[in-house]
Each structure stands twice: as C-alpha cells, then as structure tokens.
Amino acid sequence: MTGSTAGRVVVAPDKFRGSLTAPEVAAHVAAGLRAAGAGRVPVVPLPVADGGDGTVEAVVASGFTRVETEVTGPLGTRVTAAYAVRDEPEGRVAVVELAEASGLRRLPEGSAPAPLTATSHGTGELIAHAVRHGARRIVLGLGGSACTDGGAGMLQALGVRLLDAAGNDLPQGGAALRDLRAIDTSGRLRGFEVVVASDVDNPLLGPYGAAAVYGPQKGATPEDVAVLETGLARLAVHAPGLAGRPGAGAAGGVGFGALAFLDAEIRPGIGYLLDLVDFDRHVRGARLVITGEGSIDEQTLRGKAPMGVAAAAARHGVPVVAVCGRRSVSDEELRAVGIEAAYALTDIEPDPHRCMTEAGPLLERLAAAFLVP
C-alpha cells in the first residue's frame, strides 16, 4: 500500500452465513460508504475468514488464484470444489477449505446427513491436486464438515492405507474405523507441509470431543455418537498422545488426522489467515477498520473473526467498529475485546426475514447511516 492511501478505511468482515459471502459483505459496506459521500476517503475491501466456510472466497478476493477440480463429496458423489493458490518466495501456498469438498453444504440436494459413512476423502483429493500442481505448503481450513471420520478419508486420498485385521482397506466413514487394525503410511504423498487453520480447541475424544459435540450437528443419534467415538478411539491408538491436543477434534477429527499422519501444525485460524492476506500492511496508517459477521454474540467474544481483526488492528492503534445481521452482546462486552461499536441490520429493519433476504441493500443503508468516517 502506498502513502497515497494513508487515512484509508479497511473493510475486513467475515461472511454473513446464509446471506452474503465475506467479499459481498465488504463490497456492500464499501458501496454504502461511497453512496454517503465518503468517496474522498480511500476504502480498502479486505474480506477475511477464520478457516471455516468461505475461506477460499476470502483469500481469492485478496489476490490468490482460484483453482477448481472434481472430487469426492461427503456421500461419495462427485462434486466440483475449489482451492486457492499463490506463489510465495518460499514456494507455492495452497489454501484448502474442508467445507468445499467435505462440508454439509456439499450434501446432494434432498439428501439427509450420513454421520456414520460421510467421508473427508474429497479434502484429501484437493490437497493431492494442489501438491501435484506445485504447492509446497497447504493451509487447511477446518469447519462446516459433514463427516466424523478422524480425517481417514483425507488420508486414504493421500495414499495412506487403513487396514482391517485381514489386511483389507477400510471403507469410507467414521463407523468403519471400529475395524481399524493397522495403518500403512509408506505410500503417502509427500513433499509438502500442512498448517491447520482452526479456532476449534476440542480434543478428539470424550464429552468435548469430535463425536460428542459435533456429531449431533451432522445428524448423529446418541447411538451413532457411540459408534463414532469407538471408531475415533481405534484411530487414536495409532498416534498415542495426540488425541488430547487442542484442535484434534476439529472438523470431525480431521484435525487429529492431519496432526498424527501429515505432521501438521495447528495455528489459530483468524490470526494465520490475517497474515496470509497481509492485514498488517493494509491496516497500518488506516483511520478505521470495519469488521463484522452475521451474528455478533458470545461466540464472537471467544475468538471468532471480528475479535481477531480487532486484536490485529489494536496493535496499530486503529479503531474498529463492526456490522452484523444481529447482535446479542453489550457495548461494554464489545469494547472489552477492542470493538468500539457494532451496528446490526435489525437496528434499521425489524423483520428478521428481510434482514436475511435483503442483507446487501440493508448493509449499504447501515454503512451510509452509521459508518461514514
């Protein structure tokens, strides 16, 4: 960023889930500022993500290149999924978002979740495609998964063999892990490093683990949860000491699979991805940062994207305000995490349905009314 953009406004929101992507949120806020006569102030759209849904879209908006390929969806059907790449001095970096290939949003229309057989295989196929096209570092964003397979499908797609007592390869899904007896990594695709970008700190097993906490969100009954827990425990036997690591339970245990068999490093999602989009460079010298997400609530205060943006902006002394669809936390709670004020669509439109279906125009009105610097 050149000196001519000093005093700019940086618009760095996450997505409004179910309404707008992060780039769309940033574009509407910027349009609202311009409509209100803020054209004299440079506005820099810089959509962000924390590793979950929308991560690829966010980094593509910041200059990464989108790559599409066909992979296996969570139920075994073929889907078209994307990842993002950028060439760095140390080699090509690929951002792979698990939800793109193995997320609940990839379930075929009209299909019910299949918690026992859903697979992360497509995520491994995305990684393999990126590596075979020159990627040397994989940034793996975890969130929104349809599977609870401990990353088994991902590993199989990368050449790891998961074998039963007879030496046969296991079928897809978390339930099949109950029959796991041996793991052969000799054929694993190599020549790359993995950084897991995730703010989930759940362990793999137990009452706060992948099956117990997230299984029901993917359609698992109490009986299914017990089956999945047994399978994940069988997987954990093959990597002693890692099941309790914070983040091992992310995305149905894919965090564990990456830690144990891909030698991955887990990094805080929003912090690492802010580094990827060069947030510090953009915010240095800015007069204001506008962040946001669909709902600003207690989870926001526990480290989601707006809180990460506020912490990064605070290091440069730049004030932060937020936009959202709705909010359920007080001004005092927001100020405690570095957000000076938050403005919700429900402040100008009391109908929640309209806030969802007309989020873009409402954001422009909100920006024009409250955010002109």
TrEMBL record:
Q: Does the keyword Transferase apply?
A: yes
Protein name listed in UniProt: Glycerate kinase
Origin species, per record, is Streptosporangium saharense
What is stated as this protein's family in its record? Belongs to the glycerate kinase type-1 family.
User: Which GO molecular function entries does the Swiss-Prot or TrEMBL record give?
Assistant: glycerate kinase activity
Q: Name one GO biological process term.
A: organic acid phosphorylation
- InterPro entries, per database record: Glyc_kinase_flavodox-like_fold, Glycerate_kinase, Glycerate_kinase_RE-like, Glycerate_kinase_sf
Q: What are the record keywords, sorted?
A: Kinase, Transferase
E.C. number:
2.7.1.31
Q: What is the lineage of its organism?
A: Bacteria, Bacillati, Actinomycetota, Actinomycetes, Streptosporangiales
NCBIfam families, per this entry? glycerate kinase (TIGR00045)
Q: Identify the domain of life.
A: Bacteria
Q: Does the keyword Cell cycle apply?
A: no
